[in-house]
Description:
Layout: E1 2-11, E2 14-19, H1 23-27, H2 37-46, H3 51-74, H4 81-93, H5 98-104, E3 112-117, H6 123-155, H7 166-192, H8 214-217, E4 222-226, H9 228-234, H10 244-254, H11 258-266
Parallel strand pairs: 1-3, 3-4
Antiparallel strand pairs: 1-2
Helix pairs in contact: 3-4, 5-7, 6-7
Amino acid sequence: MRARLVVFPIKGRKWCFSRSVDPFAAQAPSGVTPTTVRGLWKKITSESKPVNANAELLVDFISDKMNKAWMGLEIAPEGSMKNKIHGLGLKLLARVKPSEIFLKSISKEVTSVQVSYPPSLGPRLVRRRLRHIAMSGAILHKKYLIGSVTLLPLTTAFTVLPLPNIPFFWVLFRTYSHWRALQGSEKLLKLLSNHSNPQTDDADENNSKNNKPEQDAQSPTCVFLPSEELYKLLREASEEGLDEETIVEICKLFHLNKIDVLKYRNLV
Length: 268
């Protein structure tokens, strides 16, 4: 599966990294993740798979349960306890950094990426910034993953209270989120690794003398395509960065999540 990534400066030195939303991918049922604990145990024990494959299956199972529980909170009656928990969850989710959301979007199903960017930046600079966010994300989310796993046993102590164990479920979600962001970071680094591309790799400066066309030199796992439409929308940006109207136009053009893109502009 090819993912379309969009990269552009949004405010000063702040850049936006986002993935185009595929409406059909979200609707396609996986049919692989078990729905019950018994089914999960049967799938793990009946098939000889490596440990990391079973870990992925367990993570997918927990993710599916969390998604169903979250949907239940969304449809809760106004003013109920579940509705209040949903409101608290939205406030906590608003604090998640957009770079984490971006890295999580690079799932294991992605086999190649197409990067759209304004031609004024150049593919080499765009690739450097993508590598930077992937490398820093791998270090950061590995550290936070270890911290979240350490906190999980501590938050189970709140189960003695006659209230939903919000700290446990929040730490469980953060553990899952950091795991996915770490996997996405490593996946993106792998897709960007291309030492035979003179357009985007400093290690092969000698190869650039061959004057090969950019399309021929591109790796099949990573293609950089400049977008004139994006460049036209960015030309009138002020020193304060892109206004919300321009951001909305970019989101419509590339099918981006407006809330995630706005987070980049408002990031301190």
